[in-house]
């Protein structure tokens, strides 16, 4: 059968597609706004990967995946991985879920967030919609709720680290167990392809708690220059995001970040029933992987040691197993 990955070229979608195409018999259909297959998935090892144009805010594109499988004579789409648009109000996703049901799909796996309980704002409203469909109809759903992505530090803080030697947050002394997109993709791959049980949600988190002060210290020791954690106010946070035209999103996101300051993510980490990731959570590794070594004109030896210990290359491709341990 065909698995549709909505948002399939993103942070979790690309590593998920790689796993499905090399480790299962499923056909993979990715969506992207350009409809172009990522270069990393264009080789002969990924011949089962297809791509189609899709845009959350262009409803006319929502039928493209279903039209494509019919035109290309692929097996029918029987399950969908859902990654929402980059917005706070994502209730539009519920309409697409309803359309997919009309097309015969009744299995959905939603990427949500650790703080998003069913029925709460943003992704919680999509989660709640799936819960209702599962109770009233034959819909099967799984919701994966990661804690803070390690990659997000590289995406959203890299400029300030490079240019201002600082990371900015409203976290104060709050802690989070950062998790890698690779670990999230591995968990989703298992649940999405096996589909042994359904109608549940689960949290995945990294194996260690970090404050932003500790992250700054890690960066300092590796970059060889002082990196500081600058504590900002809620208003300053919103202003930063507003400069990028994202004020509405910022007003939603900042409430979650303020909850970190109050210990919400630390409490999640200490719950026994959650799913811990095993990958070492060096923030530095992901900065390198996601930004292509943009922080370093000549990476220090300590950085390369971290890459080797964590079994990840600077391109994000897993390295061959080490024949002997690397001494830090």
Automatic annotation (TrEMBL):
Q: Which residues form the NmrA-like domain?
A: 2-240
Name of a matching Pfam family: NmrA
Q: Which residues cross the membrane?
A: none
Enumerate the InterPro entries for this protein.
Answer: Ergot_Alk_Oxidoreductase, NAD(P)-bd_dom_sf, NmrA-like
Under the heading PANTHER family, the entry gives: PRESTALK A DIFFERENTIATION PROTEIN A (PTHR43162:SF1), PTHR43162
Q: What is this protein called?
A: NmrA-like domain-containing protein
* The organism of origin for this protein: Leucocoprinus birnbaumii
């Amino acid at each position: 059968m065909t698995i549709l990955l909505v948002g399939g070229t993103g942070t979790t979608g690309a590593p998920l597609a790689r796993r499905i195409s090399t480790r299962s018999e499923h056909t993979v259909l990715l969506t992207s706004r350009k409809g172009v297959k990522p270069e990393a998935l264009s080789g002969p090892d990924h011949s089962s990967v297809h791509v189609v144009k899709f845009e959350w805010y262009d409803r006319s594109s929502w039928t493209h995946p279903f039209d494509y499988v019919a035109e290309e004579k692929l097996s029918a789409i029987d399950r969908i991985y859902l990654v929402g648009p980059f917005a706070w109000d994502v209730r539009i996703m519920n309409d697409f879920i309803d359309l997919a049901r009309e097309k015969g799909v009744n299995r959905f796996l939603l990427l949500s967030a650790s703080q998003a309980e069913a029925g709460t704002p943003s992704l919680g409203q999509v989660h709640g919609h799936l819960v209702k469909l599962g109770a009233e109809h034959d819909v099967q759903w799984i919701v994966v709720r990661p804690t803070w992505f390690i990659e997000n530090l590289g995406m959203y803080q890299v400029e300030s680290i490079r240019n201002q030697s600082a990371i900015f947050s409203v976290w104060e002394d709050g802690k989070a167990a950062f998790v890698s997109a690779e670990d999230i993709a591995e968990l989703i791959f298992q649940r999405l392809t096996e589909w042994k049980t359904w109608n549940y949600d689960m949290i995945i988190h990294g194996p260690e708690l970090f404050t932003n002060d500790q992250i700054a210290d890690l960066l300092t020791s590796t970059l060889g220059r002082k990196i500081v954690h600058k504590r900002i106010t809620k208003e300053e946070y919103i202003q930063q995001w507003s400069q990028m035209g994202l004020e509405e999103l910022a007003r939603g996101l900042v409430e979650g970040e303020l909850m970190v300051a109050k210990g919400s993510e630390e409490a999640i980490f200490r719950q026994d029933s959650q799913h811990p990731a095993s990958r070492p959570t060096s923030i530095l590794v992901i900065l390198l992987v996601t930004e292509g070594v943009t922080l370093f004109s000549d990476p220090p030896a300590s950085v390369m040691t971290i890459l080797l210990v964590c079994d990840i290359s600077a391109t994000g491709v897993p390295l061959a197993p080490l024949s002997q341990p690397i001494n830090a």
